[in-house]
Design goal:
Blueprint: H1 7-23, E1 55-63, E2 73-82, E3 87-98, E4 101-115, E5 122-137, E6 155-170, E7 174-180, E8 186-188, E9 197-199, E10 202-209, E11 211-212, E12 217-228, E13 234-243, E14 247-254, E15 258-266, E16 271-280, E17 291-300, H2 302-305
Antiparallel strand pairs: 1-2, 1-17, 2-3, 3-4, 4-5, 5-6, 6-7, 7-10, 8-9, 10-12, 11-12, 12-13, 13-14, 14-15, 15-16, 16-17
Length: 313
Amino acid sequence: MELRINMTAFNKILGIGVLLIMTMPAIAQQDAQYTQYMYNAITINPAYAGSRGFMSFNGIYRSQWVGLEGAPKTSSFSLNTPVNGNVGVGLSFSNDEIGPSIENALALDYAYTLQVARNETKLSFGIKAGIQLLDVDFTKLLIYSPLEPQFQTNIDNRLTPLIGLGTMLHHDKWYVGISAPNLLRTEHYENSTLSTASEQLHVFLTGGYVFDLNLDTKFKPAFLVRYVNGAPLGLDISANFLFFNKLTLGAAYRLDAAVSGLAAFQLSDQIMLGYAYDADTTGLSNYNSGSHEVFLRFELFTRVRNRISPRFF
């Protein structure tokens, strides 16, 4: 007997399977992941608000597992600025689309900074507060029992609060931080007789250091450790080189997940543009052509301050 596989249907089933895996609390991480996390730290750590010393706008778009139907597409926009020598504030918005679900989040960030040493070492504490809205369109699913009460409406909307905390010890040359972007455990479909899904606490440990190799070249290794209850420990490590304070080239590795190439260019004192490509190292590599990520940072008053932070994070 010859077995024929409809690849379109297979991709749909696989995409839905990926979605279900990502929403099961005991299996995998749920928050959006970024390869260029070092340039967009405020999304995971509110203590980052205002730490660069400039009013900073950050935008990032990620298309994951290109070619796999229902794969994640994520965009994030944030604005943060110092208010005075000790206080920083921020505003962020994110949109995360996976299969039939779209989750939007809007949050305010507040950070307070103390100088803890004469060598400009600072300690920042941050809090994040906001809301998130989850929309699920059941018409995009292959539903086995369409007469079930929970499938009688095409779209299910869930509005929930979010509260996060973070702290960061930092210097112009290095930083280390720990944070939990959302402390609340949210249950979805808790009245369902078929299944439930819950958003678990995510804890992030991040760090990086800048080495001056010579007058024109800087080297910055960085890491991100991700802990989610019931999931394997996640680890991202990267190595970037900054040439002439203009061009950044580097590579990254996500444990048991992907290898990445990174590039960024400082177009002016105010504008930085970055790109990253991820190649999967898992079985999913047979069904997608990798992941793409584009990053833009725009900063005000850098000419007035007459410096660009050598951290390049």
